[in-house]
Amino acid sequence: MNCYLVRESDSFTLIDTGLSGGAKSMIDAARAIAPEPIARLLLTHAHMDHIGSLDELAATLGDPQVAIGRREARLLPKPPAQDRSLDPGEPQTPVKGGFPGAMTKPTHLLSDGELYGSLRVVVTPGHTPGHLAYFDERDGTLYGGDALVTVGGQVEVIGFGPWFFPMTALATWHKPTALESVRRLAELPVRRIAVGHGPVMEGGSELLRAAVKRAEAKLR
Ligand SMILES: [Zn+2]
Questions:
Q1: How many angstroms does the Cα of residue 51 sit away from the middle of ligand 1?
Q2: 68, 110 in Cβ contact below 8 A?
């Protein structure tokens, strides 16, 4: 499971918070790069392996901004406040995967197309109903969260990876929606792809278009 530190002029943004117990190692990793604080915790979605250290980080860092998609925020609280309901326009398939919830409340609810720090917000539902990817327009890095996986030297649409990589696929809510989201991502001027699971890959929309083609073939 990958988390990413994104450098801003005076601070870091941390994309996703991993499993629980990771706060110290993430803060140490930032300090090893520069003395600036982690000022923003930015979530792609509310699965357990992405929000695990959120509460611990929020407590340790003091008062960081905490940002998540407006739709996904319904899945962030602990039960019973957690809302797993689906909206009328959405596929009526139950959400999948672990949503343990967090005590920390978001300070920012993000919408498609807005700029958060240096990152462009891209709504990419499918893995979860309110999944977000983030695109750094400065260097062309796409932080894809679990909209994509990189495995076996390739980028794959989440839920369409090879059989030996089933974990994130089993936790994917609606595969055709995930495919549609990657079609959107392929329109961005991407130069590097950094995902939640798998190594960072150099390359751009040609990799995403190839992933879409492979997924379309599997969907048929
Ligand atoms: Zn996930």
A1: 10
A2: yes
64: cis peptide before it, omega within 30°? Answer: no
Measured CA to CA, the distance from residue 58 to residue 105 in angstroms comes to: 10
Quick one: what percent of the chain has pLDDT higher than 90? 93
Amino acid at 115: L
Query: Mean pLDDT over residues 202-216, rounded?
Result: 96
pLDDT digits (tens, 9 = 90+) for 140-169: 999 999 999 999 899 999 999 887 666 777
What's the CA-to-centroid distance between 73 and ligand 1, angstroms? Answer: 14
Cα 172 to ligand 1 centroid, rounded to whole Å: 7
User: In the prediction, which pLDDT does 219 show?
Assistant: 85
Q: Give the Å distance between the CA of 98 and the centre of ligand 1.
A: 8
Distance 125 CA to ligand 1 centre (A): 11
Cα of 35 from ligand 1 centre, angstroms: 31
Structure confidence at residue 104 (pLDDT) = 98
> How much distance in Å is there from the Cα of 50 to the middle of ligand 1?
7
* Residue 120 structure tokens: 């462009």
Average pLDDT on 90-99 reads: 97
| Separation CA 120–CA 113 (nearest Å) | 6
User: Does residue 171 have a pLDDT over 80?
Assistant: yes
Beta strands across the sheet bearing 141-145? 115-116, 119-123, 132-136, 141-145, 192-195, 201-202
Q: Which amino acid is at 65?
A: Q
